[in-house]
From TrEMBL:
Residues 23-273 form the EAL domain. The lineage of its organism: Bacteria, Pseudomonadati, Pseudomonadota, Alphaproteobacteria, Acetobacterales. The chain holds residues 500 to 773 of 773 of the full protein. It comes from the Bacteria. This is EAL domain-containing protein.
Length: 274
């Protein structure tokens, strides 16, 4: 008879096989997704904390799978990055967001996420320039969000690409600030126009003095460097009040507005936070 250990290992192997098959299926579905029109962009508002004025929207990818329903970008973006599919997907997102913003001035500035894989692609700055020309979006209405992992991989080349993008008049935001390993060194070395404080910091700023101290320090660093800070994931009025008191320039989160399709946005006046 098999020992419990052996049978455990056997189940584990079966689980692994199932996971591998599942992953392959998802990748092949993702390959079709763009052509099949299953991808769309949702937009989430970003507002000035002090005035409540709408500043812009972040574009967030959504995948409506025919049988699985909605697949979260947290699940399919990593797959797209591993397989290189992020290149066509990312280009589609950039073009779609720029076209939407060009057609709808009330969208304000549109912020588009860039994967590290896109940064390693030759000619990224040229692609951005082409898309701006093609859609007619003024460069100062586009912001590109990049994470620290982008910068770590090849800092010299990344700096070159960042400068080329900024030379177009496009701004660049450091996304997920505070989750990486060398955020401070990075801020000094790269020409960012905005710091996006990661949403993991925000829930406790109104209840935990340590979290509040970190917020205060990040806003202070931003002020010293002349870079405005945006806080992500703001969900309650009391968090918003803290962010306002601490001088955080912009906020984004469910309290202000959930990501929504273009047609569902209320674009007249900013909803929350006068
Ligand atoms: P991210 O860039 O940090 O985007 C912010 C995420 O926080 C979004 O998740 C947004 O829906 C969510 N969020 C916004 N406000 C709140 C809030 O108040 N509370 C909570 N709990 N969450 C909030 P989403 O849309 O699921 O996207 C997840 C991640 O997928 C993004 O994180 C980004 O890293 C990636 N992603 C999404 N779209 C794209 C894209 O077009 N290109 C690339 N490369 N990555 C993308
Ligand atoms: Ca982002
Ligand atoms: Ca983020
Ligand atoms: Ca809270």
């Amino acid at each position: 008879a098999k020992s419990p250990h052996a049978s455990g290992a056997c189940f584990y192997q079966a689980d692994m096989d199932a996971a591998v098959r599942e992953r392959r299926r998802l990748v092949s579905d993702l390959r079709q997704a763009l052509k099949a029109g299953q991808l769309s962009l949702f937009y989430q508002p970003q507002i000035a904390t002090g005035t409540g004025r709408l500043r812009g929207h972040e574009a967030l990818m959504r995948w409506q799978h025919p049988s699985r329903g909605f697949v979260s970008p947290a699940d399919f973006i990593p797959l797209a990055e591993e397989t290189g599919l992020i290149l066509p997907l990312g280009e589609w997102a950039l073009r779609t967001a720029c076209a939407a913003a060009a057609a709808e001035p009330r969208l304000g500035k549109v912020a588009v996420n860039l994967s590290p894989v896109q940064f390693r692609q030759a000619g990224l700055a040229v692609l951005v320039a082409d898309i701006l020309a093609e859609t007619g979006l003024p460069p100062d209405r586009l912001e590109l969000e990049i994470t620290e992992s982008t910068l770590m991989q090849d800092p010299g080349r990344t700096l070159e690409v960042l400068r080329a993008i900024k030379a177009l008049g496009v701004s660049v935001a450091m996304d997920d600030f505070g989750t990486g390993h060398s955020s401070l060194a990075t801020l000094r070395a790269f020409p960012f126009d905005k710091i996006k404080l990661d949403r993991s910091f925000v829930p406790e700023i109104d209840s935990n003095p340590q979290a509040r101290a970190i917020l205060r320090a990040v806003v202070g660093i931003g002020r010293g460097l002349g870079i405005p800070v945006l806080a992500e994931g703001v969900e309650t009025p009391s968090e918003l009040a803290c962010l306002r008191d601490e001088g955080c320039a912009e906020v984004q989160g469910y309290l202000i507005g959930r990501p929504a399709p273009l047609a569902a946005l209320s674009l007249s006046e900013p909803a929350a936070a006068a």
